[in-house]
Design a protein that fits this description.
- It is built from one helix and 21 strands.
- By secondary structure, it is mainly beta.
- It has a single domain, classed as Porin (Beta Barrel).
- A hairpin with a 7-residue loop joins strand 3 and strand 4.
Amino acid sequence: MISINPLSLHLFGNLARQAVLCVGCVLFSHALFAAWEGQVGGEGRFYFEDPLDAKQHTNENLSFYVQPEYRHRWNGGKSSFTFVGFGRLDQNDEERSHVDIRELSWDTSYDNWDVRIGLRKVFWGVTEFQHLVDIINQTDLVDNIDTEDKLGQPMINVAAVQDWGTVDFFVMPYFRERNYAGVKGRLRNQPFVSDSEVRYESDDEEKHVDYALRYSHYFGDWDVGLSYFKGTDRSPDLIDDVDANNQPISVAYYELIDQIGVDLQVTKEHVLWKLEGIYRDSAVESYTAAGGGFEYTLPDNGSSTMDVSLLSEYHADSRGENSRTFDQDIGFGVRFGLHDAKSTAILMGFVYDLNNNGYIFSIESSQRIADNWTLVFDARFFEGQRVGDSGYDVSQDDHIEITLSHYF
């Protein structure tokens, strides 16, 4: 049976009130009817093994989510307002029952200048298996461990759009902490990360002002991005500690960092060549990390029933086994896009750790099953992880996931 805790209801109530207030302001100022869209759905996860920690739930988990969206343009398309909300109610994990405003922003253009103010999502990077340079938004790790889901970041973003490229300047006056699965949740750290014991290097904590600068342009077949970030690291160090009852917990510690990043993509006929690299400096350490590879799309002679792409990347980190993610890993993948009315898409991926021989195998597939209905099937398997490896905490969390979504 699904339990609904009072905190979840309170959070959903707050989201609804904020959404109504924001949209009401737009309707009043522009005297227009709001055309809403978005999606709502249910998700079922089924685990094949018992968890590492007996406090975690066992084999199945259900959750429901909603993502309302509102967008409006005026001034000849030069100005826009965007609202994207998100809420999830989870059967077992109170921390996974959460709400967020993914986007709530006002954007406008003046000749060769763009100004964007509010909560926004910004993506940097080109590689498939790991996004090293992508640092603006915080990861919504409790929603999905693939690091693709992001929290909205408060910011002022001014962009100069010129013939010689685009320069983006970001001021971020508020930091958002990463959310982690709770005591009962699965796909979590061992021990679990406490959300009440967060620590910062900066005395200003979450109110520390962060800055970022990025230049992007294309030169023929080359797409180039150069970036600089100064502020609170989005990915914290996890420190072992104990709670008030002397039970083991992990505590998130957020450092101040400087990061220089580069991302390149070169298009050559059927091949995309990709590269990302960073140099990061903090009071604790300095290191470099890089990842690169290719995506090759098989030529289509016009009679094929699907598009097929082959992917391969290599990722390395100068910290070696002390890396939080990939230290020396190679990834392979195959992407299928069927030419059918159901828009069927399948991605199979395999990441192998060259240092400890552990690997992760994943399948992601989606298909439209009716008008405005989509069925998504995901599966993840973690093998060969040893005690002390970065992936050991989820080594018994092999699972499949089925999501049914309705778009409105």
